[in-house]
Task: inverse folding
């Protein structure tokens, strides 16, 4: 019996070794992340690690990659790409729309973010694109402003200049209400009406959305529009509290554009908040809410002359990628919105900064998110001065589908005399 068990184990190991060699030999010219061991490859580096530890191990691996490397996890090979030329080639490739198996375990259902079948995703995306056109975005502004103003009113009760406030609680409630009000009707209890609306949307081939697809896409909108924006504005409040000179510039710009209460919030007035936009962009660079993306090759893919066979996984880590010194200078950890000045951006590769990904599978709600975040910051800073005792070096991050802070997003708020 013991001999049969041993023979079975040896057989399994040989099969794993064969599968690994079969896959790896197609990518033999791509350097392997170290340490790597026979049969298991890099698997031991992730063995018995938490999701947070595994994420930071992956970040460490990416920081040692200039263009491309491979990570061998038993029979699976991950192709790590970390250069804008390669990212552009992958993300702009219409045959690179499929996503790998681990998106099934992200808890996002089968909506736009995690739908693995690229062809199915493309049909759904074409149907949902009109939801985020300019006319619709304009109609959302008054709702966003009303919810942001309500949030500011709720913050008044804790704005005593010294009490620590966990901003994610207030901003999270605000973004949740914005998403409900703009995409699901006036109130959350009007969700059935939105289901009827989506049920009447047909694919190009006349196929209707199923109940599961409706639920998945509504959940995707909720998660994408709520969590990501809430995290970004909470990080932004912390950074503005740490850098009062930057906060002062944002407030000065807001005072200049919205010089009295008669100035309406429109797409044009929001565009005038150029420094505010640079602040948000810098927050997204340092703290991308979705810190990685992955694609699965449907056909052969050629990168740097290497032929990568079908059904291989290509991985991008935006957290590490946005900290490349050759694109962001010798101090990429420093918070500096002026990195996004036109003169500073000149010559930088257009794919060096990808907080919303890029290509066909970029974030459908990118403009929606930027509008809501500018409005939320406007209403917060018009009423309050933000401060914090924390330093940027104190911030510890964890990965739980999104990039989150370990602990509260604590700041203190003080009512402004005039804004």
Result:
């Amino acid at each position: 019996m013991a001999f049969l068990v041993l023979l079975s184990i040896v057989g399994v190991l040989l099969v794993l070794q064969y599968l690994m060699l079969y896959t790896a030999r197609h990518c033999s010219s791509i350097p392997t992340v170290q340490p790597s061991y026979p049969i298991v490859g890099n698997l031991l580096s992730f063995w018995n690690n938490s999701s947070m530890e595994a994420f930071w191990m992956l970040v460490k691996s990416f920081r040692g990659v200039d263009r491309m490397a491979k990570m061998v996890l038993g029979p699976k090979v991950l192709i790590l790409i970390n250069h804008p030329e390669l990212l552009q080639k992958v993300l702009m490739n219409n045959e690179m729309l499929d996503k790998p198996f681990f998106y099934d375990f992200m808890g996002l259902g089968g909506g736009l973010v995690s739908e693995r079948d690229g062809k199915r995703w493309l049909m759904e995306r074409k149907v949902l694109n009109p939801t985020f056109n300019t006319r619709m975005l304009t109609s959302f502004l008054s709702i966003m402003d009303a919810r942001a103003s309500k949030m500011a009113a709720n913050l008044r009760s804790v704005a005593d200049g010294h009490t620590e406030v966990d901003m994610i609680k207030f901003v999270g409630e605000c973004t949740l209400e914005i998403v409900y009000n703009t995409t699901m009707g006036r109130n959350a209890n009007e969700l059935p009406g939105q289901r009827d609306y989506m049920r009447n949307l047909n694919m190009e081939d006349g196929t209707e959305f199923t109940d599961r697809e409706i639920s998945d896409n509504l959940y995707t909108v909720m998660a994408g529009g709520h969590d990501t924006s809430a995290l970004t504005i909470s990080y932004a409040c912390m950074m503005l509290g740490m850098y009062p000179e930057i906060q002062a510039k944002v407030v000065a710009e807001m005072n200049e554009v919205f010089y009295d209460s008669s100035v309406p919030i429109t797409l044009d007035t929001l565009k005038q908040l150029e420094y505010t936009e640079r602040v948000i962009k810098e927050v997204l660079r340092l703290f991308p809410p979705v810190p990685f993306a992955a694609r699965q090759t449907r056909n052969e893919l050629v990168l740097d002359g290497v032929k990568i066979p079908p059904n291989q996984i290509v991985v991008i880590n935006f957290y590490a990628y946005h900290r490349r010194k050759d694109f962001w200078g010798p101090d990429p950890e420093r918070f500096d919105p002026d990195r996004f000045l036109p003169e500073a951006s000149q010559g930088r590769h257009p794919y060096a900064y990808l907080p919303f990904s890029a290509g066909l599978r970029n974030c459908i709600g990118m403009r929606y998110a930027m509008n809501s975040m500018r409005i939320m910051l406007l209403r917060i800073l018009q009423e309050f001065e933000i401060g914090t005792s924390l330093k940027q070096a104190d911030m510890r991050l964890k990965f739980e589908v999104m990039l989150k802070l370990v602990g509260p997003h604590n700041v203190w708020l003080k009512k402004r005399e005039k804004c």
